[in-house]
Amino acid sequence: MTLRRYAPLKPSTGTTWPPEVSEAIRVRDQGRCVGPLIGMAGECYGRPEKDHIRASGALGMKSRSTLDNGALLCSRHHRQKTDHGREWRPSLIAYVDRMAR
Predict the structure, then answer these.
(1) Minimal CA–CA distance to 15: which of 46, 68, 52?
(2) What region, left, alpha or beta, does residue 63 occupy, with left being phi > 0 and alpha being psi -120 to 50 degrees?
(3) Number of domains in the chain
(4) Is residue 71, in this structure, part of any structural domain at all?
Protein backbone atom coordinates (compact mmCIF):
# COMPACT_ATOMS: atom_id res chain seq x y z
CA MET A 1 0.00 0.00 0.00
CA THR A 2 1.32 3.46 -0.87
CA LEU A 3 0.73 6.32 1.52
CA ARG A 4 0.25 9.79 0.11
CA ARG A 5 2.51 12.51 1.43
CA TYR A 6 1.18 15.98 1.90
CA ALA A 7 3.09 19.17 2.50
CA PRO A 8 3.00 20.19 6.16
CA LEU A 9 0.62 22.97 7.12
CA LYS A 10 2.11 26.41 7.45
CA PRO A 11 2.43 27.64 11.04
CA SER A 12 -0.55 29.66 12.17
CA THR A 13 -0.12 33.41 12.04
CA GLY A 14 -2.87 33.83 14.60
CA THR A 15 -6.12 35.67 14.18
CA THR A 16 -6.23 39.30 13.21
CA TRP A 17 -9.33 41.19 14.22
CA PRO A 18 -9.84 44.66 12.77
CA PRO A 19 -9.54 47.21 15.61
CA GLU A 20 -13.07 48.56 15.07
CA VAL A 21 -14.51 45.02 15.24
CA SER A 22 -12.51 44.24 18.40
CA GLU A 23 -13.85 47.36 20.09
CA ALA A 24 -17.44 46.70 18.98
CA ILE A 25 -17.30 43.14 20.40
CA ARG A 26 -15.82 44.41 23.68
CA VAL A 27 -18.53 47.07 24.01
CA ARG A 28 -21.38 44.72 23.04
CA ASP A 29 -20.24 41.99 25.47
CA GLN A 30 -19.38 44.55 28.17
CA GLY A 31 -15.86 43.16 28.43
CA ARG A 32 -17.00 39.87 29.94
CA CYS A 33 -17.38 36.26 28.90
CA VAL A 34 -20.79 35.55 27.36
CA GLY A 35 -20.71 31.84 28.27
CA PRO A 36 -22.80 32.25 31.45
CA LEU A 37 -25.29 34.47 29.57
CA ILE A 38 -26.12 31.62 27.19
CA GLY A 39 -26.16 28.89 29.84
CA MET A 40 -22.67 27.40 29.63
CA ALA A 41 -21.75 25.57 32.83
CA GLY A 42 -18.96 26.51 35.20
CA GLU A 43 -17.38 29.64 36.57
CA CYS A 44 -15.42 31.78 34.16
CA TYR A 45 -11.70 31.10 34.13
CA GLY A 46 -9.18 33.43 32.61
CA ARG A 47 -9.51 36.69 30.78
CA PRO A 48 -12.23 36.89 28.10
CA GLU A 49 -10.87 36.87 24.55
CA LYS A 50 -12.48 37.23 21.16
CA ASP A 51 -13.46 33.95 19.59
CA HIS A 52 -14.92 32.98 16.22
CA ILE A 53 -18.34 31.49 16.90
CA ARG A 54 -19.20 30.11 13.46
CA ALA A 55 -17.59 26.94 12.17
CA SER A 56 -14.79 27.29 9.63
CA GLY A 57 -15.80 24.16 7.75
CA ALA A 58 -12.71 22.27 8.97
CA LEU A 59 -10.67 23.65 6.11
CA GLY A 60 -7.80 24.68 8.36
CA MET A 61 -8.80 28.30 8.02
CA LYS A 62 -10.48 30.69 10.42
CA SER A 63 -13.93 31.93 9.63
CA ARG A 64 -14.36 35.67 9.04
CA SER A 65 -13.38 38.15 11.77
CA THR A 66 -16.58 40.22 11.86
CA LEU A 67 -18.91 41.49 14.58
CA ASP A 68 -21.55 38.88 13.74
CA ASN A 69 -18.96 36.11 14.06
CA GLY A 70 -17.23 37.01 17.30
CA ALA A 71 -17.91 36.88 21.01
CA LEU A 72 -15.89 37.16 24.19
CA LEU A 73 -15.28 33.83 25.89
CA CYS A 74 -13.02 32.92 28.80
CA SER A 75 -10.73 29.93 28.36
CA ARG A 76 -13.16 27.53 30.11
CA HIS A 77 -16.12 28.45 27.94
CA HIS A 78 -13.98 28.63 24.81
CA ARG A 79 -12.94 25.01 25.48
CA GLN A 80 -16.61 24.01 25.92
CA LYS A 81 -17.47 25.68 22.61
CA THR A 82 -14.54 23.98 20.90
CA ASP A 83 -15.34 20.53 22.32
CA HIS A 84 -19.12 20.80 21.90
CA GLY A 85 -19.55 23.21 19.00
CA ARG A 86 -22.72 21.66 17.66
CA GLU A 87 -24.34 22.29 21.02
CA TRP A 88 -23.00 25.79 21.78
CA ARG A 89 -22.53 27.51 18.42
CA PRO A 90 -26.30 27.92 17.83
CA SER A 91 -26.69 29.59 21.25
CA LEU A 92 -23.73 31.89 20.62
CA ILE A 93 -25.05 32.84 17.17
CA ALA A 94 -28.51 33.51 18.65
CA TYR A 95 -26.93 35.74 21.33
CA VAL A 96 -25.01 37.75 18.71
CA ASP A 97 -28.12 38.07 16.51
CA ARG A 98 -30.24 39.14 19.50
CA MET A 99 -27.70 41.80 20.52
CA ALA A 100 -27.59 43.19 16.96
CA ARG A 101 -31.26 44.25 17.12
Answers:
(1) 52
(2) beta
(3) 1
(4) yes
Each residue's pLDDT tens digit, 44-87: 999 999 999 998 766 556 788 999 999 999 999 999 999 999 99
Whole-number Å distance between alpha carbons of 27 and 42: 23
- How many other CB atoms sit within 10 Å of the CB of residue 61? 8
Which range of residues forms the domain containing residue 46? 19-51+63-100
User: What's the pTM value of the predicted model, to 2 decimals?
Assistant: 0.82
Summarised one tens digit per residue, pLDDT across range 6-28 is: 666 555 556 789 999 999 999 99
